[in-house]
Amino acid sequence: MIIELPQVGESVTEGTIVQWLKQVGDHVDRYDPLVEVLTDKVSMEVPSPVAGVVTELLAQEGQTVPMGAPIAAIETEADADAAPPADAAPAPDAAEPSRSIDRTGVLLKDVAPVGPTGAGVAAAIPQDAAQRQSAESAQTRRRYSPAVRRLADERNIDLSRVRGTGINGRVTRKDVLAYSAAQAEAAMPMPSPVDTQADADEERLPLTPVRRMIAANMKRSASEIPAAWSITEVDVSGLARRREALKDELQRREGVNLTYLHFVIKAVAEALRENPLLNSSWGDDAIVLKKRVNIGIAVAAPDGLVVPVLRDADALSVAGIAVRASELTARARQGRLGVEDVQSGTFTVNNTGALGSVASQPIINHPQAAILTTEAVVKRPVVIGDAIAIRSMMNICLTFDHRILDGAEASAFSNGVKRRLEAIGDETGIY
């Protein structure tokens, strides 16, 4: 049975094979993890849909394949029962003309004449004809999978020259790749002299599948979206006091840490309702407004940046956002996010302030219209009226798609977030 890379969502078109969890010859039960796959949304383990023995791996580790493409072959009990015995006569070639004559018999060609009793005289078969029949018979017995044939055609390889290492001597993709590599090595010219000093001064770090995926997404965003950005100063002194007063209570009641980010997400969600162009995407011939406010939260996971999505954030309280965001962040750092956790985001927030940044220009999470960063909260002197006071200040940095938004709409949104954050005081609730 051919196993295909399953579809995981309309926006996910391809996946990269990170690691095979089963090898050729291994037994696998239904729902056992078969392979680890990385998409532009999430890393996931794909379970086997059947029980059986892995007979062939059709995609190599590090290879990117489209969703729905064949990635492995598994022999099930049903396949084994249906397989013809080894000494069974090969099926006739599909290209050979049918020998059936009406419904009363079979037309026999190129046979020796027989007498009335059925005895016959042996007819001599030319040597070249016998050799041709033997070769055709051997070719018939050596069956190749479509993936093996396709790979051989791509690399102009004669499969009859490839020694098979699969079950019953079957030729696998690995055999074809090994044969191709051997041919390439044999044809390779002598290496040029190596600059040993350059090797001593440099080190090349191989790209992981996650880093390749991040690089591709960043390149797409930077090349397709004409981005502009702005910084807005926010006085979060009231927010700092309120968070300090409530964090112990929330820790005791919900078991999560209350952060500035949770208040920011609430302010962003309300500002998106007030400024719907920020909650949209570019549709070539139209601007696509999103009816739901699903905020992605950029998280630095061990293998790279991931963006789990907080769905319907505008319907949650600050406490609700804290609980749900903490859960998503923990699962992201443990590598336990599912595909559903990273789909359908409409806007992204990134807390670069946690890294000590005070100003940044974030790259938009394609195909969204904008992204906002919250920077470090810093106490500094600020002029208020005619006096100077020490206040807790934070910058919020917005990058937006200039095809969708102009400066006026972007500033209206940023000021809406600023207004809500600066309005937080000693009576502000979080439930």
CATH class category name of the domain at 227-422 = Alpha Beta
Q: What percent strand? A: 15-25%
CATH architecture of the domain at 227-422: 2-Layer Sandwich
Gap from first CA to last CA: 53 Å
The CATH homologous superfamily name of the domain at 227-422 equals Chloramphenicol acetyltransferase-like domain
Helical residue percent band: 25-40%
Question: What is the name of the CATH topology of the domain at 227-422?
Answer: Chloramphenicol Acetyltransferase
Gyration radius, in Å = 33 Å
Unreliable stretches (pLDDT < 50, length at least 5) are: 93-125, 134-141
* Secondary structure: number of strands: 21
Main sheet makeup: 7 strands, mixed
Give the helix tally: 10
Which structural category fits the helices and strands?
Answer: alpha+beta
Tertiary shape: elongated
Mean pLDDT: 84
Structure, described:
This protein has 431 residues and is of the alpha+beta class. The chain is built from 10 helices and 21 strands. The two termini are 53 Å apart. The strands form 6 sheets. Strands 11, 14, 17, 18, 19, 20 and 21 form a 7-stranded mixed β-sheet that branches. Strands 1-8-6-3 form a 4-stranded antiparallel β-sheet. It has a domain at 227-422: Chloramphenicol acetyltransferase-like domain (Chloramphenicol Acetyltransferase, 2-Layer Sandwich). The chain has helices at 77-82, 127-141, 146-154, 173-187, 196-201, 209-224, 237-254, 260-274, 318-333, 407-422; strands at 2-4, 14-20, 27-28, 33-38, 43-47, 52-57, 64-66, 70-75, 100-101, 105-106, 227-235, 280-282, 287-289, 295-297, 299-301, 304-306, 309-310, 347-350, 370-374, 378-384, 387-401. Helix 8 packs across helix 9 (318-333) and helix 8 packs across helix 10 (407-422). The longest helix has 18 residues, at 237-254.
